[in-house]
TrEMBL record:
It comes from Massilia mucilaginosa. Gene3D superfamilies: Gamma-glutamyl cyclotransferase-like (3.10.490.10). This is Gamma-glutamylcyclotransferase. Residues 10-104 form the Gamma-glutamylcyclotransferase AIG2-like domain. CDD domains: GGCT_like. Pfam families: GGACT (PF06094).
């Protein structure tokens, strides 16, 4: 039996898709492919974090919320990352998000970062 190396997947629907944010967060440009988050809806909110605005170049950013509607889809990119890069993604989002696993439209299971108010 051959052990398979598990490569974590990280799904981004927002600023982690931007090359500048990837370079600042991970020190490299991530390779990824288009996919969609099923059963979630997207909204745009204003960021209160000046560091986020400086890194992303934006004052507003997308968030997602569980909709419980299988017809809802949020388009984005799924990236292969290391365990250390998952920690970097958590640090980039700071206290604004919590990381959970979700099944994407492709059937892949990936980490996603959801706004923490959902969990309060």
């Amino acid at each position: 039996m051959i052990d398979r190396i598990h490569v974590p997947l990280l799904f981004s629907y927002g600023s982690l898709q931007q090359e500048g944010v990837q370079l600042a967060t991970f020190g490299r440009r991530l390779a990824g492919s288009a996919d969609a988050l099923v059963g979630f809806a997207q909204a745009i909110v204003q960021s209160e974090d000046p560091e986020f605005a400086a890194t992303s170049g934006k004052t507003h950013h997308p968030i997602v919320r569980f909709s419980d509607n299988a017809e809802d889809r949020v388009q984005g990119t799924v990236f292969e990352v290391s365990e250390a890069e998952l920690v970097d993604a958590d640090a980039y989002e700071a206290d604004a998000c919590k990381r959970i696993v979700a099944t994407l439209a492709s059937g892949a299971q990936a980490w996603i970062l959801l706004p923490t108010p959902i969990f309060r």
